[in-house]
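Task 17 of the worksheet. Students: predict the tertiary structure of the chain below and write it out as structure tokens. Keep your answer in the requested format; marks are given for formatting as well as content.
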Amino acid sequence: MKIRKVGIILIIFMIGLFSCSKYNIKDGTPLDKRMEIAMKMFENGDYFEAKTQFRIITLSHSGNQNADKAQFYLAECHYNMKEYILAANEYERLTKVFPASEYVDDAKFKLGMSYYQLSPHYGLDQTYTEKSIEHFQEFLEDYHTSDLVEKVERNLLDARSKLAHKVYSSGRIYRKMGRYRAANIYFNKVLEEYYDSKWAPRALYWIGECNRRMHKPKQAIEAFAEFKQKYSHHEWIGRTNDALRELRKELEN
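Model answer:
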């Protein structure tokens, strides 16, 4: 195992020597100087060269005071190169190996952002979206006074909205198939789990319509009345009022 680790370090050193010649990095360059040059590479956008140097520092000088900084910027290099899975792994390593580091809060934020960047179209598997939500929620619990809270909350809402859209779409498919009971299961799930998303009002409206199609006028009226009370300024308020008038007239007759 030790031989393998030494081999990896030697390979990284060789890559660093060949790819970073313009920065004049030599074998045996002092740690502080290597860190200084690596940061210059990073600032210049030379992320491939920079991540090689940061990796050398993390592997060769794990007990050094710059090790946590090198670990963070290694992750940043991957993130800026859009290697989000690798970035997430490195951010997470920082939080575990250096829990007292000054970079932990930023690392936890970027950990959530890495998965957020990987989040696909709502119709696809939402594992990465769920992971981003998990890490954003943890960040808000641990750093509720951070300057990043507003951005985290915005991205969290967007990620939750994507999950809500997926559930809502399942309900819409069943509704179009005429399977109204099954549709309502999904629409109710939107209301229960994603009440703060833009899909909640639409789900509530369709609960009313599905009940109407199942000849349950009282339940339909309850849903439409709740919609009218909660979402009086929604774009669907007109059709909701029309549905209420028709249903009440039917009951009167």
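Marker's comment: The CA atoms of residues 122 and 162 lie 5 Å apart. The longest helix spans residues 149-176.
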